[in-house]
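Figure-free illustration: sequence to structure, shown twice.
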Amino acid sequence: MALSLNADTRLLVVAPHPDDESIATGELIQQVRESGGDVQILLLTNGDNNPWPQRWVERRLRIGTDERRRWGERRRGEVERALRQLGVDPVALHPLGWPDMGITERLFEDFIPAVSALTACLAACRPNLVAMPALGDHHPDHGAAHVLVRLAVSQWQGGAPEMLAYLVHGREDEVTGRVKLDSSVGLHANKLAALACHQSQMALSGKRMRRLADRAERYQSIKEGAAGMAAPVLPWVPSAALHPWLRLTVVDSRGVHDWPWSKAPISQDGQGRYVLHGVAAGDPSPAFAKLHMYVPSPWIFDRWGWCEL
């Protein structure tokens, strides 16, 4: 399916970090602007919890509070330059300043204020097209951002915008329901020029970032379904050896529900799959589940991540 963009298009791009807007939506942004439409950027974090590029660029080992704040300010300046390269006035940038690598925690611990902040941005920008991270993105900030945006859209009284999900961290074949965006050599070259404005990230990871940005921009079309099933089947069958450390969290319009795996309202069906009981039944708003462990690890990406119920 191809996108139809025109002067009435009001695009809101939700970016968890500076550089996501260029990597994932750089050509979409340009096409909306060329069509005479409006573009707004909701930036959830300043990307300040990014120690290895900072150590590389600043030739320092210790990263404290002051260093992180300065790094975040630097990345804010970079995203503003990238937006100018894409034809967007930085006044269209709406930064929330949430903790980098902390959006999942914000969702779990400050659910109502977090959703309210996104709903307020929707009310201010009044988009009819929203581009957000994919639920299946392996970066925890991206998956949590998807959940929050979807719930904010379901509560916003200003309309029903078309919703597109983009993937940054993960394999493209993990996202279905593609919306194709036509491109050109000029659009792609300017997208890469915008990416180059994120110098703090390109210094250490330029090859990886260019590889991500070189992928064709294809989006998953998000369609709100009917009321949730009475007993949705979860996509995970974790090893019994991990059960003592696992937690299951469900998020819906009513809030956050969290259990140790052993106490979660689940049972196994005849095929060995786990079925969730009594949560989000009959609720027409979206609901999501996350399987995770509260075990410290140097690996930042989600092992199981989120699913939609």
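We now fold a second protein in the same way, so the two outputs can be compared directly.
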Amino acid sequence: MARQLTLLLLLCLCAPLPAGEVLHSQVRRDGDHFLIHLQMRIDAPPGRVYQLLSDYARLDQLSNVIIRSRILERNGNRQRIEVISEGCVLMFCRRVTQVQVATALGQGYIRLIDDPEHSDFQSGRTLWHIAPADDGTHVTLSADLQPRFWVPPVIGTAIFKHKLLNESTTLINNLEQQARHAP
């Protein structure tokens, strides 16, 4: 038994640990809009991080809250995508659908604009920026989301920020793990 525990400990010590981190995280509420700013450092090459973040048919492999994602339509550097997520706060769970137009803007920028007719958001604008850094990749996310559903004031923002931090850590770990296994 002691030999098995020693072997397990050695395997854990030899396994590569994720080195990325959340550098900055901010969630503000302005009326019924949520303004999000997130900066992360990912221990992986920028090209691979960009490739993984823009693989819209497989976003569920990067996130615990995304149940399904799929590409509805392609047109040059634009793709119309559907992302279905589910999140729980205490015992209350909510499934959210977003239909978005994702546009590759060049120089590491990706813009996502929600289609309010087919989404659970009145409006949504998200901008990703994936850039090289000395120690891997620097990823910035800025978003302005206006949900159609009710989010309790004060506590809703705090819970949203807590969930964002947890999900960001999961995203970093999954990006780093998948980047190591290049296709």
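Summary for the second example: The chain has one domain: 18-180.
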